[in-house]
Structure formats: structure tokens, C-alpha cells
């Protein structure tokens, strides 16, 4: 199960809507091994495409160096689909390289009409584990705020 | 000649879970051959048809090797190499 606080969930949805019709992407970092999605980092989709996303290679290095320095890892890796359902594409599965991450897929296909006008439709928000090309969907639990961090 | 190579999580099964290993080589191609000699299987995860895989990023001293000559990129004692799989999808 993926647990997200309401503010992070809303921010991911807002990012996906803002970048529509291009795919939006980013991560939520958290302390290594904690499985706590604490720190949202919106990334630029260097591909700038409605059908593909890729972190810019310089941004990627900076991000991993920053996480390294803070003893963090990517707890969530998210991106949006803008014309299809929130399910990992074959490309998503083939390129999933973080076996410990929750892969969040957001679909904005029902949020906009064909002219890009706002439709007020729901955003589909789903989460998966992708390990060795195998996709397992998991429940997403949205809480007002994450439980206090264990001090032990 | 010692070059530190940072290994991403997904490839640490080739390095006994070490986050970084030491290798040598006058350029990136030679370094990868040296890595392979000590961590068999790693080369195939970095190269495809003799070139760097499209969705694997390699940096020398924080510079993407694609701008440094790719596999021909020269290396010097004390350089740091970072390997990071692309975060990408469709």
C-alpha cells in the first residue's frame, strides 16, 4: 500500500493537470528504507511529450546527489498519462529501474475536452510496484498527514 | 590509477550490494571492461551492441559522458564516475 498525505497527493494531481497535454513527472523522496513519501520534487519532462517522459540527465544527477546527501531514496516515482488510463505502458514497465519505488500513474484524460478546455472530470490516480517486468497494483491511502516519524 | 564508480541500487547485485566500487581504465570503455572483470554481468547492463545503452546515464565528474565522447571519454586518476538509470517511460 502507498500512503500519501493529502497535500502531496493534491500537488501531484495539480502538476499533472498543469502540464497536460504533455506528461508530467516527478518523485516523492523519503528517508532510505522508511517507505515514507515525504518530499515532493517536481521534475521537468525533458521529452516535453504527450506520450513520453524522461528526467533531464543533469537534473537526474542533481536529484540523486541531493537524495544521497540527505540519506533519501525515491519512495514514489510518478508520471501522468494524458490520453490513456493510469496503467503502466509497456515502455513504463521496460524502463522501471527502481524496484523499491511505488510507481504512481495519474491520468488526466477525463479532465480536459478535445480542445484542452477544462472538463472537471476526475483524475485517475493509481500506484504499482514494477519489479522484473511484473506489475502489481496496490492500494493508495490518502491521509491528512503522515504519522509521526518513529524515533527508534 | 583508481576511479570511484557509483553503482545504482538496481545494479548492486553485481557489486555485492556495494554503493561504490573502484576500477581503472584510461577511458570509459576500458573502465567498463575492468568493471566486468571484477563484477561479471555489469557490462551487459551498461552496453548494448557495443555502445552505451540509451536509458543508462553515465557521468564523469558530474558531466554526462554523451558530451565527453561517450565510451572514448578519457579518465584520470581520482575521477568519479556515476551510473544512473534514466527515469523515463511512456
Fold and architecture overview:
The complex is a heterodimer of chains A (152) and B (90). Chain A has 152 residues and is an alpha/beta fold. Chain A has three helices and nine strands. Chain A has a single domain, classed as Cytidine Deaminase, domain 2. Chain A has helices at residues 6-19, 57-69, 90-94; strands at residues 2-5, 25-31, 39-43, 53-54, 72-81, 102-107, 124-131, 134-138, 140-143. In chain A, strands 3-2-5-6-7-8 form a six-stranded mixed beta sheet. Chain A has a two-stranded parallel ribbon with strand order 1-9. In chain A, strand 7 (124-131) and strand 8 (134-138) form a beta hairpin. The two termini of chain A are 23 Å apart. Chain B is an alpha+beta fold and 90 residues long. Chain B has one domain (3-85): Roll (Ubiquitin-like (UB roll)). Chain B has a five-stranded mixed beta sheet with strand order 2-1-7-5-6, with helices on one face. The chains are: A alpha/beta (152), B alpha+beta (90). Strand 4 (53-54) of chain A pairs antiparallel with strand 8 of chain B, so a sheet runs across the interface.
* Neighbour order of strands in the largest sheet of chain A: 3-2-5-6-7-8
Low-confidence stretches of chain B: none
Q: Any guess at the CATH architecture of chain A?
A: 3-Layer(aba) Sandwich
The CATH superfamily of chain B is identified as Beta-grasp domain
Count all strands of chain B and give the number.
8
* Span of the ends, CA to CA of chain B: 41 Å
Helical content of chain B stands at 10-25%
Structural class of chain A: alpha/beta
Sheet with the most strands of chain B? Answer: 5 strands, mixed
Fold-level CATH name of chain B: Ubiquitin-like (UB roll)
Quote the average pLDDT of chain B.
96
What is the averaged pLDDT score of chain A? 94
Which class of chain B in CATH terms? Alpha Beta
Radius of gyration of chain B: 12 Å
Whole-number total of structural domains of chain A: 1
By CATH reckoning, the class of chain A would read Alpha Beta
Fourth CATH level, the homologous superfamily of chain A: Cytidine Deaminase, domain 2
The greatest inter-chain interface is formed by: A-B, 29 and 17 residues
For the largest sheet of chain B, list the strands in their spatial order: 2-1-7-5-6
